[in-house]
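Hey, I'm writing a tutorial for new members on how sequence and structure tokens pair up, and I'd like a real worked example in the thread rather than a made-up one. If someone can provide the structure for the chain below, I'll link this post from the tutorial.
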Amino acid sequence: MELTLTLLLVLFAVAMFAGWVDTLAGGGGLLTLPALLLAGVPPVTALATNKSQAVIGTLTATTTLFAKGHLRERALLLPVVTAALGAALGTWLIQRVDTSWLSWVIPVLLLCVALYVWLTPNMGSNESHPRQSETQWALTCAPAVGFYDGAFGPGTGTFFAATGVAFRGQTLLAATIRAKLFNLTTNVVSVALFAAGGKVIWTIGATMMAGQMIGAIIGSHTMLAGGTRLIRPLVIAMCVLMSLSQIAQHLGLLQLA
């Protein structure tokens, strides 16, 4: 693979758009990972490099939202810790057991999320009675989604937000904002393990980090400036696209490994 200025500019643009999409609805990796593979980056290296630039996107979104007065509750500490533990366990386990069954389970889960959001147009428009306490959610959903991110990855932010709405009774906007912090946590754990193994191409990673940063800043301001109406259709679209991507991979139409 030859690194040219044109290639780096294309990857920068893809990462910037992905950062905007990922901040609002999750699923930005659906754009960046195929772009890396099409650029000729080997599969495992593409996964590692993709994680490295995704960290910057979630970090930028999280710090921007924090500066705007969000994500300051002490109650967030426990789910951050449990999500990190889940991600570490998932990353460790994925290297030691057969997880081929995930290739058909995950598309089903993503389509279920898309169907649920589509059939409930008022989902998360107002707070509802929570089915779990903050501690219960932190000890169940947070580590489960963290484990999923460590073991697989696509749609992690979407799953964090969806469980926040379904089990904590949060608005979709509030759940999406919180999802940025949790997704940042799981991304950091994952990329640390990849970097330790020397799997990241830092030239590409740095270029895409810059794009992710700009896209995440724009996405954060879009979210807070009345962009809530964009979250629901983007969640549906990204869930369907991620599901189709996983089905294509399962059928051998898209080779990621």
